[in-house]
Amino acid sequence: MASLGASSSSAPARAEVLALFRSLLRTARKFTDYNIREYTKRRTVDAFRHNQNLSEPSSVSSAYSEGKAQLEIAQRQAVVYQLYAPKIKSVMDLKTHH
Amino acid sequence: MASKLIASNLRQTLKRTASVFSPVRSNSTSAAAAVTSPAETFEDPNGITIKGVRIAGRPLYLDMQATSPVDPRVLDAMLPFYVTQYGNPHSRTHMYGWEADQAAETARAQVADLIGASPKEIVFTSGATECNNISVKGVMHFYKEKKRHVITTQTEHKCVLDSCRHLQQEGFEITYLPVGSDGLVDLEKLRSSIRPDTGLVSIMVVNNEIGVIQPMEEIGKICKEFNIPFHTDAAQALGKIPINVDKWNVSLMSLSGHKVYGPKGVGALYLRRRPRIRVEPQMNGGGQERGIRSGTVPTPLVVGMGAACELAKKEMEYDEKRITALQDRLLNGIRAKLEGVVVNGSMERRYAGNLNLSFAYVEGESLLMGLKEVAVSSGSACTSASLEPSYVLRALGVDEDMAHTSIRFGIGRFTTEAEVDHAIELTVNQVEKLREMSPLYEMVKEGINIKEIQWTQH
Question: What distances in angstroms separate CA B265 from CA B116, B250, B256, B259, one per listed residue?
Fold first, then answer.
């Protein structure tokens, strides 16, 4: 959302893209809510898969800056979710522990 | 029903124990649950006990038609307007007002964009119920000199039907169109019901209980032919199916924030400008929203609704593909293990996120109470406190026994495969358990036709 615009003219390096991917997944794991955590993981993987064949430098860099913006949102919201985490976990989290 | 009881219970205990709270957590419901008397709501690290029902964890949520969780991206857009940018969007003399006004106008454009309208045609309200009230009563009151007749359907949401009843008491005439067994309205019946003094046709897009999608384009064409304003309640359709106000020829459309992963307490009314449709305001006051809905525009909520609409536009295709796959998984999973499962409403013209099923030979309330780890509903949340079978299902001609056993599974953006699998497992177990002890099921297996038994005494 609210794409940060201002996409840099040069496309990001492969290492930068992979780092963004890993950061998104790492942030996703921090969500205390089962559904949001699973969604963030799934949406990240699907979005990167969807964009994996982008070759046009401008579209690669706009996808990259979109991903960066999403990462910032996820990082902020993971904190908010941690602050208000319910004491009782979802039955879905309990299930996977057994 | 259970969820309603829990909510009222929580509300009561909140009131009673308000003074005991530590100031830090005083507005948290989890803290409220922890300090209440064990007889009512008790929460410890191993589980929750509410109304004597013990649950190991928070139930998985499959009630998306009642309300949807707020998307974290939506909350992220809203929070600045709760924390620092708290200005009144109607304050014209300082920066706080200007920034709030700018944010509200951006949100207006975001909502308009999702339905193919102009931002000037959007009026923010408190929700779809208010929109429906303004549309049905407001239009008829404005044109009351010449127009005395309204056409709607038997399966509309309660707030449309209740507004119509209100009009009836004032002397207006209402035609409640019947629907077929698939839940769809008969276009010929609609055409033949139109009179010279018909002032409004109000038919919803996606039904909240059974999820069927009405033929909007065809209805819009008929209304255009007779030059009658067409109102539609699109609360359950917004962000889920493509909407275009021009393609459907609607004059008024009700929209809700909390059904599209936005905040509760906000909605939007689409009011066509050309040809202009006029309404009598329900709320008088400061003249906000062009005088149609006075009262300060709640910037954070409106921003949330705008963000939710923009997100819905971006994610519609992705969500739709996923929700359809999950619906198939749920239906096939249940049907693979159970017989006597009926889908209520058309299977072809249906929003995939709403699967309303009836289970033969079991009692609906027992089924719902047995499914305590799954948050589902038998139909509309508004009527879930009543044991009466749903009026929507009765309008479809569903037999009373089947109408009593309906469960609405609501699948959404955040639903997972694992949740669907768990819901299948629990539902199948519970239905099998109830059928095992059901004398009806035994009779059916013995070959007795239970349809011939007369249940009600005369």
Answer: 23, 24, 8, 11
B418/chain A closest Cα distance in angstroms:
8
Contact A87 B30 (CB under 8 A): yes
- Given B294, B311, B328, the domain boundary residue is B311
What domain count does chain B have? 2
The three-state (H, E, C) secondary structure of B39-71, written as one string: CCEEEECCEEEECCEEECCECEECCCCCCCCCC
Task: Name the one residue in this structure whose structure tokens are 């057994």.
Answer: A98
Reported as half-sphere exposure (CB side, CA atoms, 13 A), residue B450 has a value of 16
* pLDDT, tens digit (0-9, with 9 covering 90-100), for B14-57: 444 444 444 444 444 444 444 444 456 776 667 777 777 778 89
- Give the SS3 label for residue B255: strand
pTM of the model: 0.88
Which residues in chain B have Cβ-Cβ distances shorter than 8 Å to A76?
76
Could you tell me if B255 and B353 lie in one domain?
no
- Tell whether B45 is within 8 A of chain A (Cβ): yes
Let me know whether B86 and B113 are in one domain: yes
Q: Does B249 fall in a domain?
A: yes
ipTM for the predicted complex: 0.90
CATH of the domain at B426: 3.90.1150.10
Task: Using alpha carbons, select from B225, B185, B180 the residue that is nearest to residue B202.
Answer: B185
> Both B328 and B285 in a single domain?
no
In which domain, by residue range, is B178 found?
72-311
Residue A52 · residue B22 · CB < 8 Å: no
